[in-house]
Hints:
The protein is α+β, with helices and mostly antiparallel strands and about 900 residues long.
Amino acid sequence: MNRDDSILDILREREKELNCLYKIDEILSNHQLSISEIFDEIVKIMPIGWRFPELCHVKIVFNNSCYQTPNFRSSSISDKCNIKANNKVVGNIEIVYVEDVPRTREGYFLEKESKLIKNIADRIGQMVVYRQMCSVMDGWELSKHQPEASKSFEEWEIIVDFLRHTNPDTLLHICRKLINYLLLVGINEASDVLNNSVIIKNSDEGYTNYPTLIEPLEDVSCICEKAFILAQKHLSNDAITMKVKQWIQEEKAYSLIKAIGSVSPSLRNIIEEIQKYHKVIKSNDIVYSPQERWIAVGLIHHFLSDRSEFVNIAKQYIGCKDFFDITNRIIIPIESQGRIGGKGSGLFLAQKILEKESENFPLLDSIKVPKTWHIVTDAITEFLQYNNLEELNEQKYKELQEIRIEYPNIVQLVKSSRLPPEIIKSLSVALDDFGEVPIIVRSSSMLEDQIGAGFSGKYKSLFLANQGSKQKRLEALEDAVLEVYASVFSADPIQYRKERGLLDIHEEMGIMIQEVVGRKVGKYFFPNFSGVAFSNNEYRWSPRIKREDGLVRMVPGLGTRAVDRLTDDFPVLISPGQPGIRVNIVPEERKRYSPKKMDVINLEEEQFETVDISSILREYGDQIHDIDKMVSIFELNHIRDANKFEIDFRKDDLVVTFDRVLSESPYIKQISMILKTLKEKIGMPVDIEFASDGQQLYLLQCRPQSFVTDKAPAPIPKDIPDKDIIFSADRYVSNGVIGNISHIVYVDPEEYNKVDELEDLNHIGKVVGMLNSVLPRRQFILIGPGRWGSRGDIKLGVKVTYADICNTAVLIEVARKKTGYLPELSFGTHFFQDLVEANIYYLPLYPDEEGIIFNAAFLSRQKNILKEIFPKYQFLEDVVKVISIPESTYGKVLKIQMNAEL
Length: 902
């Protein structure tokens, strides 16, 4: 049998098991069926989950009653499992083959089949407990509605009597609660109820160094009678009834507590118990109690994170009921113990904080989160095992160059593999839930979105048009999930982990599948605007802007252009604390530095596209909701507000300014309130992503903001000869001193502009990455044209990624008017966040501005040691210059002093 046939057989077996389990779940959840009818149906269904259903027979024994398939008979080929309810064996399931069947390496029954019978037994036990509790509550409800005259007993007496006959374990549990409650309110004689011992008078004896004796318990009836007689003496009947009701409500959570507290907790069991708990209890019936807190914290640990700093915040805002909805949209392997990952957890926590705080701040009440499904983190481990790809875990320990070379092949290997069938089946359910609307498949790894390790842009996020037949959409979704999985093994995240000491920490990739915010406009789908926002503004463009005023980076359309560095476009920068202070004031500059393009989803072509804003406005401007608030009209060297009744989308010179979004809409105030609220409640500055469809503001992501450690402004010396100054700057300068710089890597802007071959341009970026690996860490600076690491025209900036520049001390961008290179204020992009986290300074230089020194002669004339380091790339020495400062200056070193306050 070849590998494909083997995989196909495994798929068929797994599908049979899943179908069996799903059908049994349907039977168990049918409250119209009696216990006998349930077992009759289960024995009919169970054989379909085994290898040879035609030879398979089932017998269930429950409470001395027997239910079995016709012609059942004992056999030596059998598997058996006890059914337990409230920790007591109440029956068993036996499955047999009545004729000989082929053995496998696992025996007559597959390992998965043994797990399946145990799973079914567990579900039956849970159903039994659930029905017992429902009977208790029904009896209690019935007693409530009896006429007063016909009541010979109090409500609590009816419940206690019912429990005495049906569930003595629950009754004993309630009695313990009652005794503890009586002791709590000061009735000390309650300590005599559980046993006949006297109260210890000398409390110091409780701390002696020998074990406490076990006191024998009386029978349940006697304990119960004593406890409730004592309660009647000190409490009213209404008070007793209220407490008994509360404890019975808490008892409904017993199966959930058991699932959470299991030695090897199964996420699938926990989700099933949450959903059952949700069915039997209303959200507003859940009150704060030690039990509720234990459940909530347990669920936070299992689904979100076990990091203490996260749990300590989350437990204040997330309760048990908050998991009712999210567990309906979680995709898990059969034996999963995974979580929803860092990005998913951060968004969920932020959502719950804002929901709670909206009671105090109505501005937060309308903030939405798009519909989101989660694939848990250990699904990638299941995927690797399912496809025999475990060797990929070794990639992180290979040399960076080897990782880069192998990565394209790994992408193809992963994308030609298949997800396990239970994951595919769940993805199909997710697509039914979304319908035919665009979706985005986003990474949510275990290590992602932590303090000091945001992994901004390190893993893939992929937009899907999600149009066409169900099968076509499912295949596209599976392909996108696999591509995100493959990105775990790329050079950038591996180098990033290595830089932060996370290489040896086990990493697993969760997935968020989100509905894309926006509307259909013609053949396109896009939001009115999207962006990122930060609690702290690390690089202010005006002295009137304070650090805590924050930063918003906003673009029309999809938010990709807000987080990526672009070679040929600009976002709109806003300080939410000072929205009136804009980066550019002169109308001509406002137009020049406004967004010219937008990212959209083309529904007809079913692909992500970048389009000219002007063409969108000409063709569909009148269909875009509130477009007059997004654009202004440029005429006669002035910018004025647009009036939706007067705009001529074909003739007017329209500029995206968002002026009336700022002045007339609540969005910027809402963003400011979100930033302040989350910063206060989480206890640190945050970084969020948002989008709006023109009517609502949606929160898409929340994580701790990477921040620059406060540094003192350095004095700028006045007595240095010009010949000893390499460069000076007076725009967007931060504070600090960088000393002991031994090397400069200089990509000459004029020479770079002369390079015409794409292959050579790519080689330049490659050489920079190689130099990054061999030059002394944090003792060299990179100087180059335009925008390092941008998406778009490679002629406008050297093509590099984080792994290519992570060891530099300073990244410098040179803007020369004659070459058209313009540094972008990239504060807030993923690229910029990497620089901040790595403590790499960013500095734009404008050599052609008055009063600025740029010693191009020094940079051009010094000895270039590139060919000594990499002889193979000598042909690039006119463009890429590597200067050894000590060698070129007779032992001197380079020092950069920066003062943002001058």
